[in-house]
Amino acid sequence: MKPATTVVKVCRVLEAMNGHPSVGLTEVAQRTGLLPSDVHRILGSLETCGYVIQSPETRRYKAGRRLLQLGWSVTHTSALQRAGLPALFQLSKRCGATANLAVFDRASSEVILVHQAEVSGDGRFEGCIGDAKPVHCTALGKAVLANLDQVSRSRAIDRSRLAERTPYTITCLNVLEQELLNVRRAGYAQDCEEMTEAACCLASPIFDQAGAVIASIGITMSARRFSSCPKKLFVDNVLTSAAMLSNRHP
């Protein structure tokens, strides 16, 4: 069967983006041998469907949420994926809170929510599967950010721009760096209404077999409940879940 010409061109454009944090239209045209007009049309269609994102400042393209979702679904047989859901439901049940699993996307320097176990009655704060979360003001993100190497951590902070999401967001670099040091020492991160007002989160990093941070697991609940319950219960369970999932990813 003869392959569809347009589909082949789309695949070539996506392959040209592979391994690059972002690409320009001219770069893609050169790598694929396609006309710039064809590349522009293909990238525009991919952007409309959420598969790529174009930066309004640089006009460069990077992988979008839908593409990341598809990429994660392809790896559904991985040990982390298999163990993630049972661990989430167990964590959610023990803490009586919504549990979340996120993976770190180096291309965007964000964490992508890939699994969630919800509980009813305490509100729904964390978002939808596939959502990209900033690393500087979420517990899931800070758990990863604190354990990146210095170059990757600085790059991720620069990309976040320390954007203010609520009045409680840390927007001072020195304050954030001190908090990240505390996260590395304690083994967990928290955000108290830094991303979403009235919501608090705890999260701990997940490491691969080489000791590199690849993901994080945590819980989300209302600020009211977070302040009224013993935090040690939450911390102990999040740490245990993260330790159980670490080293399960090649």
The overall pLDDT average reads 88
Uncertain spans? none
Number of helices: 10
Q: Helix and strand string, N-terminal first?
A: HHHEEHHEEEHHHEEEHH
Distance between the termini: 36 Å
Largest sheet report:
6 strands, antiparallel
Q: How many strands?
A: 8
Shape: elongated
β-sheet strand percentage: 15-25%
Helix content estimate: 40-55%
Instruction: Give the neighbour order of strands across the main sheet.
Output: 5-4-3-8-7-6
Backbone CA Rg = 19 Å
Alpha-beta classification:
alpha+beta
Question: Notable features of this structure?
Answer:
alpha+beta, six-stranded antiparallel sheet, two-stranded antiparallel sheet, 250 residues, 10 helices, elongated
Tell me about this structure.
There is one protein chain. With 250 residues, this protein is an alpha+beta fold. 46% of the residues lie in helices and 19% in strands. It has ten helices and eight strands. The strands form two sheets. The protein has a six-stranded antiparallel beta sheet, sandwiched between helices. The protein has a two-stranded antiparallel sheet with strand order 1-2. A hairpin with a 6-residue loop joins strand 6 and strand 7. The chain starts with a helix and ends in a 5-residue tail after the last helix. 38% of the residues are buried. The mean pLDDT is 88.
